[in-house]
């Protein structure tokens, strides 16, 4: 085999709470991830030279060693003492720096794809450990479906994936760095007691109305205070016919709505599409990476 094609799926956070700040500067989270159908295509080829190369047309995506996909290939290659040349071609559909883990998804696709293409035989567990070295969201992107994430989001517990729940995604084109969103939270170096996450019970039951009503993301507080236009867009999204609930994903600024059915999602897409820089319907996905 000379080439492998991998779909790298975006994620949303149905729930995100920050439990406290750690000594290492990271934050401990309690979050629920879900993969969604929106994906980048990552095509990985063996190449005759020994180099790792990345090609991506998106102007905001670096093609050198700053690219998470590049770093994933480098990590695997270094671990086994070199595997030869790897050419990575990324077709971007996931908005960049948008809270949808696009870079992490690309890294997960490369870990999975390079492992298969070069017959490296790393287990899923080992790949997830490599993923955690690259970024907090990479282990989930490899895992896919639905999961509760603790620690920096890398300690995962499987949850039942929701089947094809219709979503609408909106982004005003405001890029938010994850570090900047966290920086505005005021935490002491302590942890606090939690009462359990209500939305988890609705996810386990597959109760989409309950999920829509119990969406939560603490990072909306710092982001909405800096960008009131995102808060206003969320209010408008929440009021759409057939919207069970809306939320900002991750550190933003993409908003998503859990919709009653695909017709309601399509109608809302028409309502917003000419006013925002990114607007698409999607459904929840049971996978994070998928070889096709
Ligand atoms: P997260 O929710 O994990 O913080 P995000 O969706 O907010 O991620 P990304 O799309 O991963 O953000 O982009 C964050 C930064 O990473 C961008 O500024 C971009 O330049 C850089 N980056 C590195 N590699 C990639 C990649 N393969 N795809 C997209 N961005 C990448």
Offer a few descriptive terms.
292 residues; alpha+beta; Ribosomal Protein S5, domain 2; Alpha-Beta Plaits; 2 domains; four-stranded antiparallel beta sheet; 10 helices; 32% helix; globular; binds adenosine-5'-triphosphate
Describe the structure concisely for a colleague:
This protein has 292 residues and is of the alpha+beta class. 32% of the residues lie in helices and 31% in strands.
Which structural category fits the helices and strands? alpha+beta
Rg of Cα set: 19 Å
Number of helices: 10
Helical content stands at 25-40%
Share of β-strand residues: 25-35%
CATH class of the largest domain: Alpha Beta
Sheet having the most strands = 8 strands, mixed
What pattern of helices and strands is seen along the backbone?
EEEHEHHHEEEHHHEHHEEHEE
Count every beta strand, where a strand is a DSSP E run of 2 or more residues. Answer: 12
Model description:
The chain has 10 helices and 12 strands. 32% of the residues lie in helices and 31% in strands. The strands form 2 sheets. Strands 1, 2, 3, 4, 5, 6, 8 and 12 form an 8-stranded mixed beta sheet that branches. It folds into 2 domains: 3-159, 2-Layer Sandwich (Ribosomal Protein S5, domain 2); 166-283, Alpha-Beta Plaits. A hairpin with a 6-residue loop joins β9 and β10 (255-259). The longest helix has 16 residues, at 102-117. It is α+β, with helices and mostly antiparallel strands. The site of adenosine-5'-triphosphate has 22 residues, from α1 and α2.
